[in-house]
Specification:
The structure is a homodimer. The first copy, chain A, is of the alpha/beta class. Chain A has seven helices and nine strands, in the order ββββαβααβαβαβαβα.
Chain lengths: 243, 243
């Protein structure tokens, strides 16, 4: 892991860009030098790590005592584009724009996001190895954000101690199957009127998780309308399990 | 309003029993003498105000700066029994015990709880008048608990500024209709496997509320299994709207 830039924010949070092989990432760490628990933070479907909503959540968590890391998925964000990925993404956009059937949307989604999850999870695990070798990052480790990557990580990565997932109306078939194997404490957050995530499917996914401690939060409004207090609630959820 | 007993708890909370005409009530007020916002707290379906889970919630809220009041519903708790009410209650218990159909449960529930809501709400409003006339209680006013009474209060009582409802699988027909007229900020809490409250009906009720700001919290487990952190979340919800 090689740090390529460093910035100290007004509240003392240290923001460092890094690369790990081909993977570009950002690490936010709290002002205090005591070892901090770690949150891996991913945006649904490979949205870039520099997206303002993710950055705002990461800064809030770092200001509240967590180390937070985000990486760009293969072919997304700051990484070189890949033709197959771009084509699958364009196809999903076309189907959504043309008002495709639920079945057509699901197929296009599967073709775009399924491979992205498969490629992303090993990178997250390699990043986790490198992060936990840094001074000042102690674990335990939480995960926050992209539901499909979080399911695969929670199932395959024993160091994940708690997870917060968002949306989850469309999740690749493999992760819908794996949901039953998720056993870590879970906070599942959805928007009641999320235009891209059918409510019934998201509720069925919540039902499927194998975790004994799982909590659903839902708020009125569309995909990007999550109220800010849910970031605070997420902080309290991680506080119960990581601190 | 006549106070009949007074007790100061270790954390400074003052607990006073009162009567208002025939209505017996309990008032918890914070140690600080500054005027406090008020929470009306009712247990679903007329469970007594002395029930330990309600008392624990009331004490927590009072310790966090709210005046909290609970009253017994007509024929319930410390109040004289009423033959018609007892008969309707016994019938509901019989139907539930004998594994009655959803329709039979609903009819028995309607016959028991419908009249109880109609009789309770005017008493809550009279109690609210008396409470707001006390020194040290300033409003704004929140409501917490019994969904059906809360719906009717939120619709008919303009002083209610925010409401937290629990369960809501079975709610009398009149209140299911009135739900659309509820417009105050809402926190709707349910248990995912509540044996007495069908999940789908509770979710449909959440969907029906007219409030622009409404949040659903659901946790794994049966009716009495709500985790304690939901009491803290309720405190934060009321903090956003009453403080």
């Amino acid at each position: 892991m090689r740090f390529t830039s460093e910035q100290r924010l007004d509240d003392g949070v240290l923001v460092r860009e890094f690369t790990l092989g081909e993977i570009p990432g950002t690490l936010w760490t709290p002002a205090a030098s005591a070892p901090a628990p770690l949150i891996l933070m991913a945006h649904n479907n490979g949205l870039p790590k520099g997206e303002p909503r993710l950055v705002a959540r990461a800064r809030y968590c770092a200001a509240h005592g967590y180390a937070v890391a985000a990486i760009d998925a293969p072919g997304r964000g700051d990484r070189p584009r890949c033709a197959a990925d771009e084509q699958a993404r364009a196809e999903l956009r076309r189907v959504m724009r043309d008002g495709g059937s639920a079945g057509e949307i699901e197929e296009a989604f599967e073709a775009f996001v399924g491979p992205l999850v498969d490629k992303s999870v090993p990178e997250w695990r390699a990043t986790l190895d490198a992060l936990l070798a840094l001074p000042g990052i102690a674990g335990p480790v939480g995960y926050s954000g992209w539901t499909a990557v979080g399911i695969r990580l929670a199932v395959t990565e024993p160091r994940i101690a708690a997870a917060g997932f968002f949306a989850g109306g469309y999740v690749p078939r493999a992760q819908r199957e794996e949901a039953r194997q998720v056993t870590v404490p879970l906070l599942f957050l959805l928007q009641w009127d999320d235009e891209g995530n059918p409510r019934r499917r998201a509720l069925d996914l919540f039902d499927a998780f194998g975790s004994r401690e799982k909590t659903l939060h839902a708020n009125l409004g569309g995909h990007t309308g999550t109220p800010w207090f849910e970031v605070e609630d997420g902080d309290r959820f991680f506080g119960r399990h990581l601190k």
